[in-house]
């Protein structure tokens, strides 16, 4: 039973980390190097992440600076950013690329908050699905004679406690992200 609870906890933790990753990729009007995580540059025929080709830094609250280690890659990085879906036009001065994040309108902020809420709700559903699968496994173990009725009840309670803990964490992380978006 403990093994099943541990596996379920790890699975719930992965769901939470995935949500955090998705939140970090949401462009909230503030410069965040994570928006470039999905941008791949064709570097000698291999798709390479921007952060492996250049120093990416936040110089001001809404400005991201990309300084390639090899100056010949500057045009490819610029092209990769333009063709990506981050929605920001890079400014190339021949040595570095600047991404200036425009301030968000109130309507756009509300849209982003709705997206954050949707992602959080999907994560909660995934966590509850892990709980359901865990309880099904525990019931199968009881049916096979590996658990007693009391062990099953105790396991179900622990599964619910674990689920409640992760759902509360999802709500907390979501609330922080929503506050961050609405404050700007």
What is the makeup of the main sheet?
A: 4 strands, antiparallel
Strand content: 5-15%
How do the strands line up in the largest sheet? 3-4-6-5
Please report the distance between the alpha carbons of the first and last residues.
Answer: 47 Å
Can you give the helix content as a percent range?
Answer: 55-70%
Morphology call: elongated
Helix and strand run:
HEEEEHEEHH
Helix-and-strand structural type: alpha+beta
Radius of gyration of CA atoms, rounded to a whole number: 22 Å
Q: How many strands in all?
A: 6
Helix tally? 4
Mean pLDDT across every amino acid position: 89
Contiguous low-pLDDT stretches (5 residues minimum) are none
